[in-house]
Amino acid sequence: MSSSEASAAEPEYTIDELARESRVPSRTIRFYQSKGVLMAPVLRGRVAYYGPKHLERLELIAQLQDRGLKIDTIRELAARLDKGEIDVADWLGLDAQLRAPWAEDRPRTVTEAQLIELAGAKRPGLVADLVRTGGVERHGDVFLVRSPALLQVAMKLEGAGVDLEVATKAADILRRHLAKAAKDLTDHFLSHAGRILEGEYEGDLGRAVEALRPLGLDAVRIVFAQEMEKALAALRDSGRAARLPTRKKKKIR
């Protein structure tokens, strides 16, 4: 069968038929055409005809919009698809990896009883202290715990004698510096994306990002441990450690 015969065998749709088939209103189809995200139809006489590729593109546009992409971004992506610069499946795989969580820790809304259970400890004034230090927000009769995992870390530190406010501020310091590190690393890998697509991950940036997730977390743990060793060694060598109290003084009654 010749290419012209194959083309003739493909289904064709008027704009109203395409709207029924795709469940996308005719006016929206025209809007997509005006924005350059949907390729032009074939004109025969005064009638425009659409084919399977238009139907596929409408399905892709819906997928991308469901992922939160704006029309201008979709247009840029569509242009690269039409030029053969990227593959749809590869791009969707990369997008899925970029959306995948790096941690299971998510904000939770809990009752006071659940908050105490989550904290793993109960003492007078605990709930008020958690709200005051900012790790927990009160909303009427319930509480928003921004990071249940960090709350548990703070409570374990308190159990070891570290004041809750000191522990919370330590988490803020980590977040501030790691937020900058995360942005810098994202920019770094983005600027060298072409060099990532070599070897085992050639042509598949999504797989490279998937591999980066556990390895990146391992790298943070290793580098942080090394830097903490250096900082504590410097504290020891400076003599400042000798001036630190080793245990809390008992109050004289």
From TrEMBL:
SMART domains: HTH_MERR. One of its GO terms (molecular function) is DNA binding. It comes from the Bacteria. This is Putative transcription regulator protein. It comes from Sandaracinus amylolyticus. PANTHER family: HTH MERR-TYPE DOMAIN-CONTAINING PROTEIN (PTHR30204:SF93), REDOX-CYCLING DRUG-SENSING TRANSCRIPTIONAL ACTIVATOR SOXR (PTHR30204). Pfam families: MerR_1. Transmembrane segments: none annotated. Residues 12-80 form the HTH merR-type domain. Keywords: DNA-binding. InterPro entries: DNA-bd_dom_put_sf (IPR009061), MerR-type_HTH_dom (IPR000551), MerR_fam (IPR047057). The keyword Cell membrane does not apply. The keyword DNA-binding applies.
